[in-house]
Amino acid sequence: MTHNDVLRSLRYVLRVDDAGLAAIVALGGYPATPEQVAAWLKREGEPGFRELPEDVMARFLNGLVYFKRGRDESRPPLPVEAPVTNNTVLKKLRVAFELKDTDIIALIEKAGPHKVSKAELGAFFRARGHRNYRECGDQFLRNLLRALAA
User: Fold this and answer.
1) Is position 137 within any domain?
2) Are 91 and 143 in the same domain?
3) Global pTM?
4) Is residue 81 situated within a structural domain?
5) Is residue 81 a contact partner of residue 88, using CB atoms and an 8 Å limit?
6) Same domain membership, residue 103 and residue 65
7) Of 11, 40, 114, 124, which has the fewest CB atoms closer than 10 Å, so is most exposed?
């Protein structure tokens, strides 16, 4: 999924407006304006569309964790992880929404006829070089975001 698609989907999950999304991005350390957010939320080909930069997406995901769970001032800030892949988005969603493996499996089953085992799910959270690492597909992430929004 593109970063713009993920941002658009998370807007529906969080039920916030452009200013709310800008505030979440700001929590992650990037001073975004509601006008910038509005341009990122437009679909490709629409007038005013702007591609969401990767570093801003990484900061938005960190801001999402702070927005949902609060910031612990005694800990260092979350690192800005690049590149932002579907696996990175999945990891940040799991932390932000405090999802356990069983929660994610239930959400995927709720979203449609797809099923995922605990071992398959664990492969998404492995380090890229690990022999059991597996790329998270667009459809899997899309189904999870759809289930979170429901």
Assistant:
1) yes
2) yes
3) 0.93
4) no
5) yes
6) no
7) 114
Q: In this structure, is residue 77 part of a structural domain?
A: no
Residue 140 banded pLDDT, cuts 50, 70, 90: very high
**Is the peptide bond between 83 and the residue preceding it cis, with omega within 30 degrees of 0?**
yes
pLDDT band at residue 113 under the 50/70/90 scheme: confident
- DSSP secondary structure code for residue 119 in this structure: H
First to last CA, the chain: 19
Domain holding 24, by residue range, is: 3-69
* Cα 66–chain centre separation: 13
Over residues 30-85, the pLDDT tens digits come to 999 999 999 999 999 999 999 999 999 999 999 999 999 999 889 998 999 889 99
Please, which residues have CB within 8 angstroms of residue 94's CB and are 6 or more apart in sequence? 104, 125
Local structure of residue 71 (DSSP, 8 states): -
